[in-house]
Amino acid sequence: MDTCIEKIRAIGADLLAKGEVEIIIGFSDGSIPMAARPVAVSSRDDMEKLVFNSTCGLNLANYVSKNSLSGKGAKIAVVAKGCDARNLVTHMVENQISRDQIYIIGVPCTGMVDKRKIASMFEDEITKFAEEGDTLIIESALKKLTVKKTDVLRHNCQVCTHPNPPVFDVMAAEPVAEQTLDQPFADVDNIAAMDPEARWAYFQELTQNCIRCYACRNACPLCYCPTCFVDESSPQWVGKGQNQTDVTTFHFLRAFHCAGRCTDCGACVEACPMGINVREFTRKLNKDALELFGWEAGLDLEKRPPLDVYSPDDPNDFIK
Amino acid sequence: MMGNLLEHMGVDRDRIHFSWISSAEATKFVDVVKEISDKVRALGPNKKFVKDYNK
């Protein structure tokens, strides 16, 4: 995947030179291996900062919002994987940004790696991460491992059916093959097969280490409310501490605010410092959105999200 | 979808109820409330999403 970075840089340099965009939002290397971080590039000299590899797991649509664009009139270019582009579409559908404010540099994505899984293969700190095609070479002071990227893909990338941006201005490489899955929601089905008490226990255990840092919310491009319900104190919707009931309420509501909007980009899980798979909540919503409304978020600029419109065909057996 | 997610998280489905009752439908309101309270009474006290202040 390293191959397309030269193309991304060339496209970026060209856009800046022509004055078509003022800023390019992309990824740059972090201060430690496997910690690619977002960067905003506004001069040609900084173009070398841009990188793209299998550790770019955050969602760059998060850095484009009504607030960041308002009043400036500047056009922003975004380096977008399939999910980033889908979230940009969601921003447009929700009237947060307009199509002409954004220049989408599409990147066909072969998936991002699960950094926790890789870290768990080492006893000490990882000092070097490199990739050649489908092979990852990871080093620490004690050992050097060569692993296949497909073995350490994040779960949301394993089940991703839209690795190519559905909307873009330019593509940095040829689109990759898209998979279709017989059972796209096997993880959700496994939980649904448990009895209610076991499911409750499962979600209680899942969130028991939550420190309420809200990294999942902050990393999520869908969470752009000026004041989040968790930060509101009048009224106080939910307690702020680590009381398990408050924690459960937070996770339930955070997830539900993403209903019919989530692209399963995995940024929430990527950001969680406690390694909680908060996608377990949104996965159920994504499954329902698909099964009840035939909806997957961020694929179409023209269609309205299912919870945004009324249709006589909407399922209504739950109303008694 | 909200009811489905709550059910997925382990909340009893009989505790979640959605109804559309017009302000003119007083009898329907009574019937629905009766039905819900009967169902919930059968389930017993709820222990989920409840804060225990004695802890």
Secondary-structure blueprint:
The complex is a heterodimer of chains A (320) and B (55).
Chain A: H1 4-18, E1 23-28, E2 37-41, E3 50-51, H2 66-69, E4 76-80, H3 82-93, E5 102-106, H4 115-119, E6 126-132, E7 135-140, E8 144-148, H5 155-158, E9 170-171, H6 186-192, H7 196-207, H8 215-219, H9 244-256, H10 267-271, H11 279-293
Parallel strand pairs in A: 1-4, 4-5, 5-9
Antiparallel strand pairs in A: 1-2, 1-3, 6-7, 7-8
Chain B: H1 2-8, H2 26-43
Question: Could you walk me through the main structural features you see in this protein, from its secondary elements to its overall organization?
Answer:
The complex is a heterodimer of chains A (about 325) and B (about 55). With about 325 residues, chain A is α/β, with parallel strands linked by helices. Chain A has two domains: about 1-110 and about 160-180, no CATH class; about 180-315, no CATH class. Chain A is about 30% helix and about 15% strand. Chain A has eleven helices and nine strands. In chain A, strands 1, 2, 3, 4, 5 and 9 form a six-stranded mixed sheet that branches. In chain A, strands 6-7-8 form a three-stranded antiparallel sheet, with no helix packed on it. In chain A, a hairpin with an 8-residue loop joins strand 1 (about 25-30) and strand 2 (about 35-40). In chain A, helix 9 (about 245-255) runs parallel beside helix 11. Chain B is mainly alpha-helical and about 55 residues long. Chain B has a domain at about 10-45. Helix content of chain B is about 45%, strand content about 0%. Chain B is built from two helices and no strands. Chain B starts with a helix and ends in a 12-residue tail after the last helix. The mean pLDDT of chain B is about 90. At the A-B interface, helix 6, helix 7, helix 9 and helix 11 of A face helix 1 of B.
